[in-house]
Fold this protein.
Amino acid sequence: MARSSAELDRVWLEQFPEVDILLDSATIQKRVSELAQQIARDYEGTFPLMVGVLKGSVPFLADLMRAVPFRVACDYVAISSYGTETTSSGVVRLLKDLDTEVVGRHVLVVEDILDTGLTLQYLMGLLQERRPFSLKVCALLQKPDRLKAPITLDYCGFSIPNEFVVGYGLDYAEQYRNLPFIGALRADSAED
Ligand code: PRP
């Protein structure tokens, strides 16, 4: 018999005792499905372009796009923010641009997390200059206490406290992206 998502989360946790579950995989999947329904209602009859921000948005975008039951296009950007592994310096730079023309398109940016907002401020400015028909942003997580830039999410999965989170795309030193849940990494682990 197939194991439940809660059982699978427990199996993963045994491998990663330094992580405490913040949002289990069932909770994430339920919210992703709700967001997809909202997006499907809002974009019905259009052919939106979903823009994933590498690398963290990959699991979220993969689940979200498969829950929107009509034609969508996908493309990706990569943006670097300089800083240490756990804090951003606020300087951002485009590492990989879209392959797709944006002019006249309905564009939905998909992010794993809105933290300071500096990444999205840069990206939304860049995309707006390319004259999309509409430009919105969906993030699975936001940390309201950390926001520095004037970014308002059109679709938001969860507001979370200011903890260092990993899993479901989010990393620490390129680890933990493959966890099926979102967890808080204990501070002593992040300093190792
Ligand atoms: C993370 C995250 C967002 C950004 C949010 O990306 O995926 O893109 O930081 O932070 P901000 O709101 O403070 O700008 P990161 O630069 O760690 O790259 P990654 O997605 O490849 O892990």
